[in-house]
Design a protein that fits this description.
The chain is mostly beta strands. The chain contains 2 helices and 9 strands. The chain has a 9-stranded mixed sheet. Strand 1 and strand 2 form a beta hairpin.
Amino acid sequence: MQKIFIVSIFIYTAFCACNNRCDSDVETYTFQADKAIEITSDTTSMFDFHTISNGDMIVFIYWHMAPDCRDIDDDEYGEELIFQIPKNLTEFQFTNDELVEAQCRYREFGAWAIPYTAPITEGTLSGRKTSDESWEIEVSVQIIKQLGRIPDRIEFETTFHEAE
């Protein structure tokens, strides 16, 4: 009987420990005023990369970091969707080819992803300023995942807050 009790405690402890070894998903929705998206091309790799610098636009950033498990090597993965609008707008809508005008870009990052930025040319972005610190944004865009070149969608409707 005592052996069964000890084995049961060991199994319970091992089960509980395994369940708490992964961090949760993290998603942020922020914007930065007086910024601009700059695209640079690497002629060797044929990839584009982006940076955010000082400018006269508002840059919106959706950032998602998938769960990271401490017991699994190289499982880090995340994605980012960025776009910009002129800072004098209080509402906007961009559809399909107009997304290029907004510098709408998608980037994956992590252990198995090349952190290049890909232009988005299919879908819709729309938004309305609700205060100096927030925008209501709706996104429905097609992206291409790097691994397997698989089409996918990013879709959400949420509030973006000014980054600190």
